Amino acid sequence: MDRTEARGRPRASGHRTVPHTADLRVEAWAETAERCIAEAVRAAVESFADVSGAVAVAERTFEVTAATDEDLLVSVLDEAVYRLDADGEIPLETVVGPIRGGEGGRAATVRCRMADASRTPLVGAVPKAVSLHDLRLRGDSGEWACAVTLDV
């Protein structure tokens, strides 16, 4: 099943990259906001690295806080870009814990299994930053979708 199936039927989680002038546009979908954010990270990573043979060398846990769920998406992707740049690590698997909070802000604990970037073949342009332009994370009733642009 993919995200284009008829309403009322369960949709599988997934992601894709979409052509975008001089940048990378990522779309993801899942049954929860947390899983949707994790799919967006996976799409971003697969756009520039072949992780099919990569081995986890570390596990990183970090807390993200933001005003909205969309800002949480940006925070998680920012952390992935930062870890690549600062530590030379690429997320192989990302698990976003339950999103907490309410009107005053949102928070989640994120756990990533990381690969050594120097041992992972690059297949595309590496993201440098997350753009806020046309950012989207919306959903209800088990159908969440997000879209984000990454500067490469």
Overall SS class: alpha+beta
According to DSSP, the number of beta strands is: 8
The ordered string of helix (H) and strand (E) elements is EEHEHEEEEE
The proportion of residues in beta strands is 35-45%
- Mind summarizing the main beta sheet? 4 strands, antiparallel
What's the gist of this structure?
The chain is of the alpha+beta class and 152 residues long. The protein has helices spanning 33-48, 69-87; strands at residues 14-18, 23-30, 56-66, 89-96, 100-102, 105-116, 129-140, 143-151. It is 23% helix and 45% strand.
What does this structure look like?
This protein has two helices and eight strands. The chain is α+β, with helices and mostly antiparallel strands. A hairpin with a 4-residue loop joins β1 and β2. α1 runs parallel beside α2. It starts with 13 loop residues before the first strand and ends with a strand. The N terminus is likely disordered.
Give descriptors for this structure.
four-stranded antiparallel β-sheet; alpha+beta; 8 strands; disordered N terminus; about 150 residues
Annotate the secondary structure layout.
Blueprint: E1 14-18, E2 23-30, H1 33-48, E3 56-66, H2 69-87, E4 89-96, E5 100-102, E6 105-116, E7 129-140, E8 143-151
Antiparallel strand pairs: 1-2, 2-8, 3-6, 4-6, 5-6, 7-8
